[in-house]
Every structure is written in C-alpha cells, then in structure tokens.
Design goal:
It is built from 3 helices and 3 strands, in the order E-H-E-H-E-H. It has 88 residues and is of the alpha/beta class. The protein has a 3-stranded parallel β-sheet with strand order 1-2-3, sandwiched between helices. The structure holds NADP nicotinamide-adenine-dinucleotide phosphate (NAP).
Length: 88
Amino acid sequence: MARRFLITGGSSGIGAATAIQISRSEKEAKFALVGRNLERLQQVAQDCIKEGQNVEAFTIVKDFSARNSGVEVINEAVSKLGGKSTQP
Ligand SMILES: NC(=O)c1ccc[n+]([C@@H]2O[C@H](COP(=O)([O-])OP(=O)(O)OC[C@H]3O[C@@H](n4cnc5c(N)ncnc54)[C@H](OP(=O)(O)O)[C@@H]3O)[C@@H](O)[C@H]2O)c1
C-alpha cells in the first residue's frame, strides 16, 4: 500500500526536494503538496510522478497565514490521500 505524505512548503526548496527524494525511494507514494503557488506546486507534482514509479501527487493551494488554514489543509489532505497514516 502506498505511503501517504503531506508536505507543506511543497512548491520549492526543502519541501520540493524532500517530495522528489521520497518519490525516488518509495515503491509507491501519494503526496499532498501544499503552498500558495499552484503553478509551482503542479511542477513539483509532475517531477514527483516522473521521478517515481507509482506516484500520485495532489496539490493543495493554501496560505497558512489565513485563519483555519491548518485544519482545512488536514481535511483536504485526508480527503485526497484517502485517510490518515500513523507511520512517521
Ligand atoms: N534552505 C536552507 O538551507 C534552510 C536551512 C535551515 C532552515 N531553513 C528554513 O526552512 C524553511 C524552508 O526553507 P526553503 O529554503 O525550502 O524555503 P523556500 O524555498 O522559500 O520554500 C518555502 C516554502 O514555503 C511555502 N510558503 C511560504 N509561505 C507560505 C504561506 N504563507 N502559506 C503556505 N505556504 C507558504 C512556499 O510556497 P509558496 O510560495 O507556493 O506559498 C514554499 O514552498 C524556511 O523556514 C527556512 O528558513 C532553510
């Protein structure tokens, strides 16, 4: 079963690099990539799919400075990824 990853700051820098590295190392993975810039999120999602073997990558556009954004991101991620995982 694919491990599921919620990656904040997923549109650039450390978050994007982490997502791509996980894509390469996991047999199957599902990502929810969070940031404000949809175009960059979509590019990272494509890179993850290209670099991995069985990768699904979803984007969540959210500004964490907005009220309730954290809860909204968790709810959207659970919906897109298909549930919570207890693995670290
Ligand atoms: N790079 C390093 O060597 C290093 C070392 C130690 C610590 N850090 C710290 O690690 C963090 C990430 O560094 P980085 O180099 O990866 O930075 P970065 O390339 O600027 O990435 C920041 C990420 O956070 C997202 N983000 C910023 N403000 C946001 C907001 N209000 N709501 C939602 N997403 C937001 C950005 O996405 P959008 O622009 O799409 O919103 C982007 O994906 C920073 O806090 C940095 O200080 C970095």
